[in-house]
Amino acid sequence: MCEVGLRLSSARAQLEVNLSQDSLIGLGDGIVIQGSTSNVEMEGCRIADCKRMGIHAFKESNVTLRQCQILRNGRGVVIASGSRADISRSSFEGNTGWAVRFEGHPDDDLSLGSTSSIVGNSFGCPEKGNAGRKRVRVDTRSSET
After folding, report:
1. Has residue 54 got a pLDDT over 70?
2. What share of the chain is helix, strand, coil (3-state, %, to 5)?
3. Interior angle at CA 3, CA 22 and CA 24, nearest 5
4. DSSP SS3 for 46
5. Which is nearest to 30 in space by CA: 82, 83, 69?
6. What average pLDDT does the segment 106-125 reach?
7. Closest Cα partner for 47 from 103, 104, 102, 87?
8. Which of 16, 33, 38, 102 could form a disulfide with 57 if both were Cys (CB 3.0 to 4.6 A apart)?
9. Strand bridging mode 75-80 / 53-57
């Protein structure tokens, strides 16, 4: 089994990847994006049966998903604090953890208002146990003292 289908990693250079009608199936992680200000655009792609995560984006990266299928992964899409995602018309089914999770960091203020969007997606019914029950989670730091 291949550990990662696609890994983008850069400390300084901006990386851009456009995927269309591609499949990443049966991996450890489908896509890991850790390049500063890197952009990944996916349309009509399928990420399925990945042990850990379908997509994991961090270090100020940007992810755009349109009409993609994120199926039966450990977690579907994880967007770390400082990164952003636009997810539209995609389907999520059978992911064991959250279908989409925006992870905040205790020292960061995660703001989704104008930076990320989740529009017109479908979230399938649970297949068995808790798989597929968890839809969207947003972790933020509370500004209250």
Report:
1. yes
2. 0, 45, 55
3. 15
4. strand
5. 69
6. 71
7. 87
8. 33
9. parallel
Structure tokens at 133: 């029950």
Residue 58 pLDDT level (bands cut at 50, 70, 90): confident
The domain spans of the chain are 4-138
Summarised one tens digit per residue, pLDDT across range 16-44 is: 999 999 999 999 999 999 877 789 999 99
- One-letter amino acid of 64: T
Q: Which of 63, 51, 60 is nearest to 100 (CA)?
A: 63
What is the C-alpha to C-alpha distance for residues 123 and 81, in angstroms, rounded to an integer?
23
Angle at 119 between CA 116 and CA 123, to 5 degrees: 115
pTM as predicted: 0.85
Q: Torsion over CA of 65, 67, 72 and 77, rounded to 10 degrees?
A: 20
Residue found under tokens 């850790």 = 34
* Cα(96)–Cα(135) distance, integer angstroms: 10
Quickly list DSSP for 69-111.
Answer: EEES-SEEEEEETT-EEEEES-EEES-SS-SEEEE--TTS---
